[in-house]
Design brief:
The protein has helices at residues 81-84, 105-120; strands at residues 2-10, 13-20, 23-30, 46-49, 51-55, 59-64, 73-75, 90-92, 94-97, 100-102, 126-131. A hairpin with a 2-residue loop joins β2 and β3 (23-30). It has a 6-stranded mixed beta sheet, covered by helices on one side. Strands 5-6-7 form a 3-stranded antiparallel beta sheet, covered by helices on one side. A two-stranded antiparallel sheet has the order 9-10. The chain has a single domain, classed as L,D-transpeptidase catalytic domain-like. It has 2 helices and 11 strands; from the N terminus they run βββββββαβββαβ. By secondary structure, it is of the alpha+beta class.
Length: 133
């Protein structure tokens, strides 16, 4: 299964649209692009494997294990990239500003359910990130 994020970059955050195939599922928020600096930047455009992961902090969430120059890049709930993200991606139902959106948990829940189902069927799940502007 292929997920696609089309991004628009702003000085204070990155906004995206997340598609499952051709269908828009939700929006995304991320940190602004800052040359892939760990903890300060969104990740580079490209194609990444998506896996399931569990932790005490986020419970069940999505993990991108092979991001160049980065580690522990997750997809998890958040409503403000600058306040809550360190390079990860947060799905949201609605964008409210540059790198901000609301609510995140319902969008996140839908996304995890879709990915869990695909992985349960033995499918490889990938995320392609590309620029719109």
């Amino acid at each position: 299964m292929e997920l696609i994020i089309t991004r628009t970059y702003y000085p204070t955050g990155t906004n995206g649209k997340l598609y499952v195939g051709d269908d828009l599922l939700c929006y995304t928020i991320e940190l602004p692009w800052r040359d892939n600096e760990p903890g300060l930047s969104c990740i580079p455009e490209g194609c990444y494997e998506v896996t399931l992961r569990d932790s005490k902090r986020f419970g069940r969430h999505l993990y991108l294990p092979h991001v160049p120059g980065r580690s522990f890049i997750l997809i998890h709930p958040a409503n403000s990239a600058l306040k809550e993200l360190r390079g990860c991606i947060a799905p949201v139902n609605q964008l409210t500003g540059y790198g901000t959106g609301f609510p995140s948990r319902p969008a996140f829940g839908r996304l995890v359910g879709i990915v869990e189902e695909a992985i349960g069927k033995g499918e490889l799940v990938t995320l392609e990130i590309k620029r719109v502007n």
